[in-house]
Amino acid sequence: MRSRTPVLLVPLAAALAPLAAQGQAAAPAAASASAPAQSLPEVRIRASRPNETEERRQSSAAKIVIGRQEIEQFGDASLGDVLRRLPGVTQGGRPGRGGEIRMRGMGGGYTQILIDGQRTPPGFSIEQLSPDMVERIEVLRAPTAETGTRAIAGTINIVLREPLRRTNNELRAGVSTERGRGSANAAWTRDDRFGEDGLYNLTLSAGRSNERTDTDTRTIFVDEGAPTPVLDWSSHERSVSVRRNVSLSGRVQWRLGAGEQFSLRPFVSARRGDSEGERSLAAAATGLPAPYATRLSSSGTDIGIARLAAELVRRIEPATRIDLNGTIGRFSLDGTETQLDSGGSQSASRTTDFLIRDRSASLTGKLTQDLGDSHNLVGGAEFETVRRNERSDGPLFDEDVQARTQRTALFVQNEWAPAKGWSTMLGLRAEQIHTRSDTPQAQVDNSSRVLSPLAHLVWRFDAPRRDQLRLSLTQSYRAPTLRNLSPVPSLNSDYPESGPNVASSPDRAGNPALKPERAHGIDLAFERYGAGGGVVSVNLFHRRIRDLIRTATALEDVPWSPVPRWVARPRNLGRASTSGIEFDAKGRLDEWRPGWPALNLQANLSVFRSRVDEVPGPDNRIDQQPEATGSLGADYRLPGSGWTVGGSVNVTPGYRTQLTELQSQSLGAKRILDAFVLWQIDPATRLRLSAANLLRQDSESTASVWQGTQLQTVDSIGRTERVFGVRLEMRL
Question: Structure pTM?
Answer without folding.
Answer: 0.88
